[in-house]
Design goal:
- This protein has 246 residues and is an alpha+beta fold.
- It folds into two domains: 53 residues; 176 residues.
- It contains three helices and 14 strands.
- A hairpin with a 2-residue loop joins β6 and β7.
- α1 runs antiparallel to α3.
- The termini are close together.
Length: 246
């Protein structure tokens, strides 16, 4: 027996409702913008070269407690696009000391060459987003973490083909809650004066785990509404199914 129009309408409504709940959750899961240091002038590609012998890092201080869900990196491919073959590797650390940005590893993620913009794209606002939600990194306000970028890409040959991590403000970075670092291998990391590398962090404050969790009123209301609406449509669906069999 073919389903009635009413049955088909109800089924479509159920799918739309499920999709709405999924999209709403996805939007919330990315979290809120926390720390942000970017070159927004749209006219400068000044930065530090990344290569197999030149590794870079940026420390930052968490401003929102919750789960670190992702970061934006202001990096670009210098020179002819699509000439780079090695990935960038992002490692999130808890710094060992105030003079060493490398310490306990919290997450490691690959960034593929195809996902890194060229200079004109970066100047137009393109950033590299790295999703960290799968690592469940819990953070508290005041925590100091570091973002380290490494690559197996050889020393630039020719010199104009390489990855570059932008330094907003040039020699005078605007970010006071962290700083840029560089390791000229085989040496360790040294601070790059007052410089910063371009980045942004995202934190999901709703992911805080406590002994007696109390959701925000808006989240609780949203969840309750979705639950009761789902029950309503389930009942409507079954009634319609019984009617169609008659």
């Amino acid at each position: 027996m073919k389903p009635t129009k009413k049955f088909m309408s109800i089924s479509a409504t159920r799918l739309v409702l499920a999709g709405w709940l999924f999209v709403a959750y996805g939007a919330a899961a990315q979290g809120s913008l926390d720390q942000s240091v970017l070159n927004t002038s749209g006219s400068s590609g000044v930065g530090q070269v990344l290569s197999s012998s030149n590794q870079l890092a940026q420390t930052f201080t968490v401003g929102i407690a919750g789960q670190l869900t992702g970061v934006d990196l202001q990096v670009f491919q210098a020179g002819t696009t699509n000439q780079l073959t090695e990935n960038l590797v992002l490692v999130v650390y808890v710094p060992a000391t105030s003079t060493n940005p490398i310490g306990t590893i919290l997450a490691t993620a690959n960034v593929y060459p195809a996902d890194v913009p060229n200079l004109p794209q970066m100047l137009a606002g393109a950033l590299v987003f790295v999703d960290l939600s799968a690592f469940s990194i819990s953070v508290n306000q005041g925590d100091v973490l570091s973002l380290a970028l490494t690559t197996a890409q050889p020393v630039p040959t020719p010199a104009y083909v390489h990855y570059t991590w932008v330094t907003p403000g040039g020699l005078n970075g605007p970010y006071s809650a962290g700083q840029a670092w560089r390791a000229l291998l085989p040496n360790g990391f040294d601070a790059l004066g007052n410089r910063d590398f371009g980045f942004q962090t995202y934190v999901d404050a709703g992911a805080i785990i406590t002994v007696t969790p109390v959701p925000e009123p808006s989240v609780a209301a949203f969840a309750a509404m979705g639950f009761f609406v789902w029950i309503y449509f389930n009942r409507w669906f079954h009634r319609a199914g019984e009617t169609s069999k008659k």
